[in-house]
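Hi everyone,

Forwarding the result from last night's run.
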Amino acid sequence: MSPSPYLIIAAALLVPQLAQAAESSATQDEAELGFSHYALSNNYASWDSLYLDGAHRFGQRHSIYGELRETRRFSLTDREISGGYYHPISESWTALVAASTSPEHHVLPQDSLFGQLQKAFDGGWDIQAGLRHTRYNLVSANLLVLTGERYWGNYRAAYTLYQGRLQGSGTAPSHLLLISRYYSDHSYFTLALSRGRQAESLGPGLGVLLLDVRGASLSGRHWLNSAWGLSYEAVTEQQGNLYTRRGVLLGLRYAF
């Protein structure tokens, strides 16, 4: 059986961590050019992508970001445009709206819309709650995202619950645990562990396949100087008994 392009990605490692878009320098604009390559087992074609992203900051917790990406998965090529906007509502509340669209949408969503509220507390604690609506060619999906995190010293720890519902099926929960260490100004590395369920639509009249998904990644950003930095990620993820995905992402980042 070949994987269907109509997926709700409830696996935590495949859900973008949008909050990280605001964690770089609070005073500099940035742009990044990079690529990723992931090999799949069971003779499936590799996943490859090229991307260009950028972020502009108006002030503390107030920024806009966007990305252009070309992705090739299962021998199908998609292009995608995505972006988001952070706005401080008050001293402790921040809102985020984000959207994406793919003209081809063979594998990627046709479009998606995401909204999130974040509340900061004393002692480095904050909570986030968001909802994403995603449309594929034949189905749509909703994803509830609930996060609790804490910063202390040079560290950050976070837990996220993803509760996904594919049109015509039940829910597919996933869990993500992150721990990050910050060093040398804005450089950091993050260890992520995930486990959850992925709901895959097999097409009209064929039903929905539920897969157990688990994964781990090591990612980060290392600044070489005040202007140039390297972004990286190494991922391993098991998609039930369909395939195992392993690979890397590398990016060159410029601050100006």
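The two ends are 48 Å apart (CA to CA).

Cheers,
N.
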